[in-house]
């Protein structure tokens, strides 16, 4: 059975799967004794004593071009962990130019030479057993282990592959190896170092031509070619130097007595060959073939882009899928995110494997990714300018972690983060819990506030900061409750809050990202591009980063880019080297499930959809919920007859209608609508007849309803106001309906819920610098009580008021027994009911992902479907190639 993350094999802690082969599973692991990362191969069978002796002899090899074997267990091998593609993956992208192939071949020869001097023969040299690191270094794998698997009998079955495998079906593995066998191996004759020389020649031929030297439709045909035919010498590039042609012919002599005698001679021939002319090398020579390998990798990681692989001037695109058995949601702000490193060599992203959400890193010259231990619950990663560190948010903290290894470090409290950026002076700028921007030293310290929300523009958030090249100025989104007033602006780390007038670049409701120009000249020297989203299309506009001015017209870059409406977040990232990565536009498809108190799920009778803020009717038979239109993305409110699964549309606006709340008799629904600009409160008969009635005080502030008291007298809602942020208000539902504030402080207070007896209100507040659940008096004895610890959102009461539920910051459904007394309010320590990671992170968006039946025995949850977590990323090289300069 596959091993799980965190499981131990001897002293080795499993970190993540790497792949599988005939021998068994291969994992990335940590040596707990030496605290180093290793690769561990788990065999399907127990090793023999003979194998262990051979393996220990191989472990004595110590050469920079040989992957070191560290340890041998009863059924596993522990080796040096090597990042990068195999030579087979490189060749699959096309023949390798001479100026690149010969240095690689020389390193392979040096590795064989070092082993032969110690009497160790590889016996299974092939491109799949050769790794290429990002620095262009060769690492030969599985040295000498083929011999350990030989039976030792002189008449051993020649159909058995020398590939390292303990599988009973060895003949099934030979196809990948037969083409590299020497003639003597194909005949079943004992092999010596000259077999490695033959294989070296086969590998070099394949590197230069991009085709197999010996190939056939069946194993027998391939072996026959090895024994009887010569390679197609005409396939060699015309510029192949005569010494290299001579070397290949001498390596591939079928009679081993005539074959090149020593691999050291091959190294000398390569050294003496005329230096080839360098081919066309782009800014990062590793990148074209490193990414091209994506097109041929037969792993769950990658798939061809459906819209074609090439764009003008050498730009091309590939679609990236998450690691095998993992899922990611790049178009998600609370549990996702991704970012290219500035040097364009790596991608950081958030992925979930076996219910555990971590930060992962993948080098773009590698076909594997690795999770970073200790980054549980990470989201929205961003890089340091030198590409050594990654900043991220988790557990209401701003954190950082070194990519090369080591534990994450806390930088400061952050609450629900909304973007961060890092300059070369070690300053991080990020959006804090109050939705304004702060700066802090990357080494840690107390954050300093840089911006305040401007009431003149009805601003309700400053999101998504991104440093400009000078490291002093940064882009950010000044988001307004009046959509037309939202704009990408420029701020400075030298600003004092409230003293600088808004420096607006472009009116748009999206994050803005700076991309340096790769074209040279004026634009390469002092300016670049401002990238932003408009109607799901990514645009770029020339931007003078010195004078902070846009020039020319915005031009489209990519369509159907993922976008989160609630936070105006467009899921894309660029590197300094011309790479672009973005998530695809898609409805965040979910399905409704019932979850019992012990965590057992059962489906609700409803079709999958993009559900938002569900609310059960008082009798529990109907559900009011926002559902997004698949074509427009606009939300309207629908009702679902839960016993029968019948869905009926309730509102019909082109503007967003969300946050439904039932009246206690089930005859009316209050909701929030953007039809008149800012979201305000509306009332409509639950049966659908009649017109919607605007209630409360019309305002340019966001108004979101959360609960209706059981006696029908009061509506509890949140209003976001400049200066006090999110406040709790009470709207009397009788008489003049004049609203009054319940909680109006400098902190956010939202998600208010009346207790069934109407005496108490449960709500969340960020007064402790993270969202926690509190209960305070409404019509009962004065008092205030904290319910959650370590973070909590989305409080709900049981129908009899004896239990309060909420979602913890790490995605658990919690229950706290509570009791109202004549003197006050009593509560017990909350306990975990079940894992609910799909629900975590709701505090920053202030909407509910679930509702609970009145008896507290079942929870109706909006859970993501597989389709909503498997959306690919699109990676584009040289994204500026097609733009109008």
Rounded mean pLDDT is 83
* Helix fraction bin: 10-25%
Major sheet attributes: 6 strands, antiparallel
Distance between the termini: 56 Å
Estimate the strand proportion: 35-45%
What does the overall shape look like? elongated
Number of strands: 61
**Radius of gyration, taken over Cα atoms and rounded to an integer in Å:** 32 Å
Attribute tags:
about 900 residues; 12 helices; about 10% helix
Provide an overview of this structure.
The protein is mainly beta and 885 residues long. Helix content is 12%, strand content 36%. The chain contains twelve helices and 61 strands. The strands form 15 sheets. It has a six-stranded antiparallel β-sheet, covered by helices on one side. A hairpin with a 5-residue loop joins β46 (702-708) and β47. α3 (98-117) runs antiparallel to α6 (193-209), α3 (98-117) runs antiparallel to α9 and α6 (193-209) crosses α8 (242-251). The longest helix has 20 residues, at 98-117. It is elongated, with a radius of gyration of 32 Å. Residues 148-176, 278-313, 520-525 and 840-845 have low confidence and may be disordered.
Gist of the model:
The chain is built from twelve helices and 61 strands.
What topology emerges from the helices and strands here?
Blueprint: E1 8-9, E2 12-20, E3 24-31, E4 36-43, H1 49-58, E5 69-72, E6 76-80, H2 87-92, H3 98-117, E7 130-132, E8 138-140, H4 145-149, H5 183-187, H6 193-209, H7 219-228, H8 242-251, H9 263-272, H10 286-292, E9 302-303, E10 317-320, E11 326-327, E12 338-340, E13 346-353, E14 356-363, E15 370-371, E16 379-383, E17 389-394, E18 397-402, E19 409-413, E20 420-422, E21 427-431, E22 437-441, E23 448-449, E24 459-467, E25 473-480, E26 487-492, E27 504-507, E28 513-516, H11 521-526, E29 527-534, E30 537-544, E31 549-558, E32 563-564, E33 569-570, E34 572-574, E35 580-583, E36 590-596, E37 601-603, E38 611-616, E39 622-628, E40 635-641, E41 646-649, E42 657-662, E43 668-673, E44 680-685, E45 693-694, E46 702-708, E47 714-721, E48 725-732, E49 740-743, E50 749-754, E51 760-765, E52 772-777, E53 784-786, E54 792-797, E55 803-808, E56 812-820, E57 825-827, E58 831-835, E59 850-852, E60 858-864, H12 866-869, E61 873-876
Helix pairs in contact: 3-6, 3-9, 6-8, 8-9
